[in-house]
Amino acid sequence: MHVSRRAVLGALAAAALPVHAQAWPAKPVRLIVPYPPGGVSDVVARALGEQLAPLFGQPVIVENKAGASATIGMDALAKSAPDGYTLAFSAISPLVLSPAIGKVPYDAERDFTPIASAMISPVLVLATPANPAKDFRDVMGRAKDAPNTIRWATSGQASLGHLMLEQLQDSAKVQLVHIPYKGGGQQITDALSGQFEVLSVNAGPSISEHIKSGRLRALAVGAPKRLDSLPGVPTLAELGYPRANLSSHFGLFAPANLPTRLLDRLNTDINNALATPAVRNRLVASENVPTGGSAREFARQIAAEADSTVRIVKTVGIKAE
In terms of CB atoms within 10 Å, which end of the chain has fewer, N or C? Predict the structure, then answer.
């Protein structure tokens, strides 16, 4: 079979092109999850990877790089090439909260390309067996009548739950006692035994079981709207505290300077993956709210939350431990 000189030269030229100039993707795509294996974020990321692989025509390899409130994994992303082969599935807190309370090894505004919003993880405000209050308004009324008597537990100093607490204190002009934990495990154990009156925690299947059994009572939720699983529980915005109506917002990111053609392709594929029953059912089962949307809107949401976070951090003087 005769092969023309032009065809040979064309093939050689294509082989000499850098990977980012060739048709994307020509090799597996790495998806960094800056959290430990087994959590909701890890489970959702793997479900997304399974749906994205056939859309990409290449495997999606999930890599857990946990630590330092997700900043280790996001730093790894920031230092990667903007060629579409390294992405991350993360909450936006490493871009809005971590930089507001301390130094981070990257520039949160310049080192990342937001691709698409993926989900919102609601924050539940729960009453423990030590709390006799009828509802959330009753809790705030008791806090106003007796300052520093209601103990409110969060997953840690400078956590999203801590921001929620500080926003409530500022808006309602009440004084609560912050009980910061290092993560959620011991916090739940102590909640069930009534070691404090209120806790804020991300929604999830295990929390739902404690609510169903009556061991914990849902007072309010930080979310864009009421949860289908808890239709009788109002959002903090409904209760008159829109600034405290906080929830964990997750999405997918690439390094800065991602070419527009790759951004558009990734945004389309991610939105298609989010729309599949396999991913939506996984999100709903874990009490998370599927989102999606354009890259521009996701970037706008991050910027708005960053501004709000900086204001409350400066107002109340929150610092990392």
Answer: N
pLDDT for position 128: 98
Give 176's contacts (C-beta < 8 A, 6+ positions apart): 143, 148, 150, 151, 152, 165, 168, 169, 198
Query: Which of 239, 232, 245 is closest to 200 using CA atoms?
Result: 245
Question: Do residues 315 and 98 make contact, with C-beta atoms less than 8 angstroms apart?
Answer: no
Give backbone dihedrals phi and psi of 124, rounded to 5 degrees, phi first.
Answer: -95, 140
71's enclosing H/E stretch is: helix 71-78
User: Vertex 17, ends 89 and 258: CA angle to 5°?
Assistant: 30
**Closest by Cα among 98, 55, 104 to 76:** 104
Task: Report the candidate in 241, 242, 248, 225 with the shortest Cα–Cα distance to residue 136.
Answer: 241
Residues 6 or more apart whose Cβ sits within 8 Å of residue 310? 100
> How far is 111 from 250, CA to CA, in rounded Å?
17
CA distance 113 to 62: 19
Closest-CA residue to 119 (of 87, 79, 91): 91
